[in-house]
Amino acid sequence: MAATEQVFAEDAYARACEARVTHAAPGAIQLDRTVFYAAGGGQPGDSGILKLADGAEIEVMNTVKGEGAGEILHLTAEDAALPANGSAVTAEIDWARRHKLMRMHTCLHLLCAVIEAPVTGGQLSEEKGRLDFDLPELSLDKGEIEARLDQLIARDAPTGTRWISDADLAAQPDLVRTMKVKPPSGQGRVRLLDIEDIDLQPCGGTHIKSTAEIGAVTVRKIENKGKHNRRVNITFKEPA
């Protein structure tokens, strides 16, 4: 199957797009282009609907990467209607859920800037997120971390994405903060998220335009997950 054009990679605020079906099988539909983010890097895949030309709707319960390079699969119920190959659809994400994921994902990048240590793991959902850091001593202070996050959020720093070649990334290994998950290489270039004067690192996820859009957060707890693993959990203070 052919690669799917990733509309979300260039415009994280795109809520819908027109597309055509390139392959449909029970439980999975592929499009030539999509606004649906495929699960990866700790960020869940998008949910939403596919609207057909006759007005019918197919619920997309999750979005994942296919086996081929650049393939994105929209997961549906096994008994969902199968649109014909080549048929036109409107792909529309659950924007309220996506926006929360964008806010939390961006906040985790701020957490990387606050805690200067390699990242050993991470995960996020609509209301909470966590990062694991390679730290031998449990010397993290919840109040201090939360205060520094508040400062960075209040700075209203703009975010942006740009691309770097595989060769340039290899020459700048300090850009990669994650120990276990490495940026995808072999395609010639890697996408970077740049939070002005705060954080710069490879990331293929979706993010908000400015740190102020994150809103108030709290450091819920810090956990000892092993000799060199400290887990920092954050949540939104108020449901958005």
How would you describe what is shown here?
The chain is α+β, with helices and mostly antiparallel strands. It folds into 2 domains: 5-93, Beta Barrel (Elongation Factor Tu (Ef-tu), domain 3), CATH 2.40.30.130; 98-236, Threonyl-trna Synthetase, Chain A, domain 2 (Threonyl-tRNA Synthetase, Chain A, domain 2, 2-Layer Sandwich), CATH 3.30.980.10. Helix content is 18%, strand content 36%. The protein has helices at residues 7-10, 95-114, 142-154, 166-171, and strands at 5-6, 16-25, 28-31, 33-34, 48-52, 57-60, 62-65, 72-75, 88-93, 119-124, 128-133, 159-165, 189-195, 199-202, 217-224, 230-236. The strands form 4 sheets. The protein has a 7-stranded antiparallel β-sheet with strand order 6-5-9-2-3-8-7, with no helix packed on it. A 4-stranded antiparallel β-sheet has the order 10-11-16-15, covered by helices on one side. Strands 12-13-14 form a 3-stranded antiparallel β-sheet. Strand 2 (16-25) and strand 3 form a beta hairpin. Helix 2 crosses helix 3. The relative contact order is 0.17.
